[in-house]
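If you are new to this repository, start here. Below is one unmodified record pulled from the training split, so you can see the exact layout before writing a loader.
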Amino acid sequence: MSTIKGNVLKEPGLEDCLGFVGVASRLCRFDAQYQGVIDSLLGRVAVAESLDDAVAIAKQFHYRFRIVTLDGQVVNAGGSLTGGSLARNSGLLSRVGEIEKYEKEAAILQEKLKKAQEEYHQLQAEVSKRGGAVRRPGRAVLCPGGADPSGGGTEEPPGGAGKSAKGG
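And here is the target side for that same chain:
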């Protein structure tokens, strides 16, 4: 590892640029034995706060080095851009946030399900206490065994108009 030597960006005026955060190799923590490797990989990469800042810095320094924004967009040496709006939603941190959001949503839905089940069981108990009779709007009184508790006939179903099942 001692044979790898890297160059570190030393552009006059770079540190004074609006939105400049630092040189990537200086923003990392690592064991001193890896200094050459880190400088080789990140020593010529600047970090900027936003894409607008990165483009302005790149233009000022004639696109001689790579600039990475805090949200992961890249202005390559030469001026090409990579990343973009989709890159914001594909990183590990955004996925962790998305997972946490869905876990909270699932917990809320679980609580709603639990309350609905409790209400269902309470209503079932109430039906049992009343001997199983339940009146539904516009429908017959339903009882165990099909008997009408009022002693009369059953009510017509909506749209039935007295027709029999045989079409009469």
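Two things worth knowing about this chain: The CA atoms of residues 147 and 163 lie 21 Å apart. The radius of gyration is 36 Å.
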